Amino acid sequence: MSFSIKDEMPDLVQQYALYLRNIRGLSAKTVDEYCMDLRTFFRFLKAKDFGMTEYSRLAEISVRDIDLDYIRRIKALDIFEFMNFVADERNNMSSTRQRKSSSLKSFFQYLTVHEKLLSEDPTEQLTPPKAKKALPHFLSLEQSIELLHAVDGPEAERDRCILTLFLNCGMRLSELVAINIRDVIQNNSTLRIIGKGNKERIVYLNQACMDAIQSYLAVRPKDGVKDRDALFLSSRKTRISPKTVQFLVKKYLNKIGLSGPGYSVHKLRHTAATLMYRYGDVDIRVLQDILGHANLGTTEIYTHTSSSQMEEAINANPLAHVSEKKAKNDKP
Question: Which of 1, 27, 34, 230, CA to CA, is 20 to 30 A from 63?
Answer without folding.
Answer: 27
